[in-house]
Write a sequence for this structure.
């Protein structure tokens, strides 16, 4: 053990090779230089993301906050990814094409931003017009009163339906 620490001058070629392998194995999983720096930054970002929104609120950069102003006060909501506005103010961005304002109805005007879909007039869930139902229930036919008041003497009772004589069953070959 002590000969490993003294250096390669008193070691044979095989022992030197073994010492080199041992040193490589000792630092096999450790990061050095730029790789270590990037790994530490990644761990810090993951810690911020998992700690919760309470700690992240004060560390949010200004570029992640919405740029809209409401009554001369800047919006404090977080902006959508790859944009400069939050969901409530995304329609103020003239370059975006993913959201439109809901038109609402004559009785209830609405200006909520909704994602553009395949429909020509995107609406929020409150103003969504449903398509007519595809299933139409069958109409119940009215039974004429003549059939309802049929005489009961036309029907046979259970006793009348029973055979009065037992007939032998014949089987033919």
């Amino acid at each position: 053990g002590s000969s490993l620490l003294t250096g390669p001058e008193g070691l044979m070629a095989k022992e030197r090779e073994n010492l080199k392998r041992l040193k490589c194995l000792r630092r096999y999983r450790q990061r050095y230089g730029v790789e270590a720096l990037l790994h530490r930054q990644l761990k810090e970002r993951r810690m911020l993301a998992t700690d919760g929104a309470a700690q992240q609120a004060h560390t949010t950069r200004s570029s992640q906050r919405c740029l809209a102003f409401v009554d001369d006060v800047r919006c404090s909501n977080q902006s959508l990814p790859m944009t400069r506005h939050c969901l409530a103010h995304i329609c103020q961005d003239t370059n975006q094409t993913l959201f439109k304002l809901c038109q609402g109805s004559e009785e209830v005007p609405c200006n909520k931003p909704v994602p553009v879909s395949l429909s020509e007039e995107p609406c929020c869930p409150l103003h969504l017009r449903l398509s007519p139902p595809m299933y139409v229930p069958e109409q119940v036919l009215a039974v004429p009163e003549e059939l309802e008041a049929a005489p009961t003497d036309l029907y046979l009772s259970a006793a009348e339906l029973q055979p009065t004589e037992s007939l032998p069953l014949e089987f033919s070959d």
